[in-house]
Design a protein that fits this description.
Elements (H helix, E strand, L loop, with lengths): L2 H10 L5 H4 L15 H31 L6 H9 L10 H12 L6 E5 L5 H17 L2 H14 L2 E9 L8 E7 L4 E3 L13 E9 H7 L4 H5 L36 E20 L4 E5 L1 H8 L2 E7 L5 E3 L2 H13 L3 E6 L6 E5 L14 E7 H6 L3 E17 L2 E8 L6 E5 L11 H4 L1 H21 L2 E6 L5 H8 L4 E6 L16 H18 L15 H14 L1 H25 L4 E6 L5 E6 L1 E2 L6 E2 L7 E5 L9 H13 L5 H6 L6 H37 L3 H44 L8
Parallel strand pairs: 16-17
Antiparallel strand pairs: 1-22, 2-3, 2-15, 4-5, 5-6, 6-7, 6-13, 8-9, 8-12, 10-11, 10-12, 13-14, 18-19, 20-21
Helix pairs in contact: 5-7, 14-16, 21-22
């Protein structure tokens, strides 16, 4: 928005109410207890979406529990115990998920903004910094890992970008967070992997009052008037949790006596919003205004000038308009021109012309202050009503409407990362696909342990009726002991030893493990196990091959981050309207400071104004994947030796913390080397002068003079040599210090 609009808006809207600036609309009558139609629609859609996805949600919960070690059902456990087997879990799923997740999120994503059309390139750099800022203050690395975990386990991860008007001492921030996928209900008719074609997306979850008051402090009274709820929307599973782990939703229905819980529903729906496209023919300014913004803009003042000679002109720039208003008030609606005797330039003076030798004749101009709507009517400012896509959010608690708001975005601020997308919002996951392999491994391991236990059984043979069998079993009945009765008259029974397990069983278990890891795109070496190549280059090659196997997952992640960036820009432009300074810690340890939306005394308008212009921002390809720092450093050393980059850029790719100190010491060494070279040149010059003097010596008198000159040269030469020795010693000390500061650790030399 232009500065004129922002200034006028601040004077009309309630000052200090960020919710007004962001466009929140609250219920008009708090005492009205009728359920708002928007709330009714949210509840109806939520019920419909939940019924449609119930089967998928059950599979999601089972996948979560399965990954965490609940890998046997109650019926399976009962059957195993009947056969004397133990429900063993050899969890290969968990380390596979963790390794794959670690590879995708090894580094923080790098964002790069570019200016579109004639937008400011410097402002584009500001957006690049702002995205890093958003990622840092949102604990983005943690949120990203949560989303990736849900992606592998349940099939879908969810990221949300949102505005927090209460952050930064009420100035507001744009933040991101990962949402639990089972709290997200998507239109089942959606076919797009980002759910951009969904009619609505709903986020519903239980929150404590403490959490809600922190998020919406201005709606505390409305929240307290809503009904309390302990409704659980997460489905139950058939898996038996042997370790007593607490899963998502397990605590939702417990104890409302200390922390009151209510159900909050956020519904995001696509709408068509009528806007006004403005084009000012005087300033070439163009913008889009909502109906409310358009009304504010139309009432802004403009200036119509009627000169005594010449045509009528118009002024619409807010700063120029303010200047003319001040002149009009001082000159009763008129001004004239006078020639400044000192500068020889014409100067505007309030009021009508008067007798003065410096007055420019017929220069009187009448000032008419008019609203901009009159210029719109004259087509000086052209206005055209158009329609654009927007997202409307409706927030309610229970049956109470908190607020509605139209977001300045075309796509949903909730971005889904689908694993195996089936052209519906119910994707498949790696854990569910490879669950049979994990179950097979568990069954084999359970059989092996049962067989090992049987193989070590002690068989006690006693004649039938000789002793009490139960008493013997109690005495001897330790683990692996068996008591067998036989009829002595019929002879001793033949006791057969246990049948050995086939080797194929162990081979099949190893193959199942390998197939599972292959499916996740990882290898044993990548999990810290054995099997690493014997050479360093072989290890790098294996690591790079593993990254190629995970390339499709990298594409999924980068597509999500790019979509998120597209949505974030207009949210930043809306909330960051005042001067702001952000400081980012660079990988090199240096602090990068970025300042935007500030005024300069020597310039008009804001510097680095992010509120206007069009920009694109993308995540740098491969920036989240792990990198081999020594291979990277070798590459940069080759670039430095070729003269393509400087020392500073090369040092950035090392783990040297004190880069500035290293560069300072390098400059000191260079200076000392120059001083030593200078002293060497002086010594050579003195020796040359001595040789010349010897050749030019004539007669005894000249020889005496030569001897005196030799003595002087000898003294100077001694002083020069002493200085050279001093500089050389200092150089050696500096070189030793430099080598010590950049020397890698022993483990890093491998």
């Amino acid at each position: 928005m232009p500065s004129s609009y922002n200034k006028n808006k601040q004077s009309i809207l309630m000052s200090g109410k960020m919710k007004d600036v962001l466009g929140y609309t609250s219920p008009s009558a708090p005492e009205d207890r009728t359920v708002h139609p928007e709330v009714i629609k949210s509840l109806e859609l939520l019920e419909h979406y939940m019924n449609m996805r119930n089967e998928w949600a059950t599979k999601f919960r089972e996948a979560e529990e399965f990954r965490n070690g609940a890998q046997w059902s109650s019926n399976q456990i009962t059957e195993l115990k009947k056969r004397g087997q133990t429900p063993i879990v050899v969890n290969r799923i968990h380390p596979a998920v963790e390794t794959a997740k670690a590879m995708l999120t090894a580094r923080k994503p790098e964002f790069r903004a570019t200016a579109r059309e004639d937008s400011d390139r410097k402002v584009a750099d500001v957006f690049s910094s702002l995205f890093q800022w958003m990622f840092d203050i949102s604990a983005g690395e943690v949120e990203l890992k949560r989303m990736i975990d849900d992606y592998y386990v349940g099939g879908m991860g969810v990221l949300q970008v949102y505005q927090d008007p209460n952050a930064d001492m009420g100035n507001g921030e744009v933040l991101l967070k990962a949402i639990y996928p089972l709290d997200v209900y998507i239109d089942p008719n959606a076919r797009d992997p980002f759910s951009r074609d969904a009619a609505s997306i709903i986020v519903a979850r239980l929150m404590t009052d403490e959490e809600a008051f922190k998020q919406w402090p201005e709606y505390k009274s409305a929240i307290e008037g809503a009904e309390v709820s302990d409704h659980i929307r997460y489905p139950k599973t058939s898996l038996e949790n042997l370790d007593g782990q607490i899963m998502a939703g397990d605590l939702d229905a417990h104890d409302n006596s200390h922390h009151t819980k209510r159900e909050y529903i956020e519904r995001y729906s696509r709408i068509k919003q009528d806007v006004y496209k403005i084009y000012d023919t005087t300033t070439k300014y163009q913008a889009l205004y909502t109906n409310k913004e358009y009304k504010l803009y139309a009432e802004e003042p403009a200036i119509e000038l009627f000169p005594a000679e010449g045509e009528t002109s118009f002024i619409t720039d807010i700063e120029e308009v303010e200047e003319y208003i001040a002149i009009s008030e001082a000159g009763d609606g008129y001004f004239h021109m006078m020639m400044d005797p000192q500068t020889g330039q014409p100067t505007m003076m309030p009021g009508l012309e008067h007798e003065d030798p410096n007055v420019i004749p017929n220069s009187t101009v009448e000032i008419n202050i008019i609203p901009k709507r009159e210029l719109i009517e004259k087509d000086i400012i052209m206005s055209n009503k158009i329609s654009r896509n927007r997202v409307k959010v409706i927030v309610s608690v229970g049956t109470v409407l908190l607020y509605t708001r139209i977001l300045p975005v075309e796509d949903y601020p909730i971005v889904t990362m689908m694993n195996i997308h089936n052209r519906n919002p119910f994707p498949e996951s790696d854990v569910r696909i490879y669950r049979p392999l994990q179950e097979y491994i568990n069954k084999i391991r359970s059989l092996i342990i049962a067989h090992a236990s049987t193989s070590t059984n002690v068989k006690l043979l006693i004649p039938r009726g000789a002793v009490n069998k139960k008493e013997i079993e109690q005495e001897w009945g330790r683990a692996g002991t068996a008591v067998i009765e036989f009829d002595g008259e019929l002879g001793a029974p033949v006791v057969a030893g246990p049948i050995p397990l086939p080797n194929e069983l162990y081979k099949n278990e190893a193959e199942a493990k390998h197939d599972l890891e292959y499916g996740f795109g990882i290898f044993e070496m990548m999990q810290g196990g054995g099997g690493a190549p014997s050479t360093y280059r072989g290890t790098i090659a294996m690591d790079e091959y593993g990254q190629r196997r995970i390339k499709s997952r990298q594409d999924d992640l980068e597509s999500v981050l790019n979509q998120l960036a597209k949505i974030t820009i207009p949210l930043m432009q809306q909330i960051y309207t005042e001067e702001k300074i952000i400081r980012l810690v660079q990988p090199s340890g240096l602090i990068k400071e970025t300042k935007f939306n500030y005024n300069d005394e020597d310039l008009t308008g804001k510097i680095n104004d992010i509120s206007t212009g069009a920009y694109d921002i993308v995540v740098v390809t491969g920036s989240t994947l792990p990198s081999n720092r020594w291979a990277q450093f070798e590459f940069y050393m080759q670039m430095y030796q070729a003269g393509l980059i400087d020392q500073v850029e090369t040092l950035k790719k090392t783990e040297v913390v004190d880069i500035e100190g290293v560069l300072e010491r390098m400059n000191t060494i260079k200076m000392l080397q120059q001083q030593v070279a200078q002293q060497d040149e002086e010594i050579k010059g003195l020796k040359g002068d001595l040789q010349t003097a010897d050749r030019e010596t004539v007669g005894a008198k000249k020889r005496v003079e030569v001897e005196k000159f030799k003595s002087q040269l000898s003294d100077q030469s001694s002083k020069a040599q002493a200085a050279t020795s001093l500089y050389g010693a200092r150089l050696q000390d500096s070189l030793a210090t430099q080598k010590q500061s950049v020397k890698p650790e022993k483990g890093d030399r491998k």
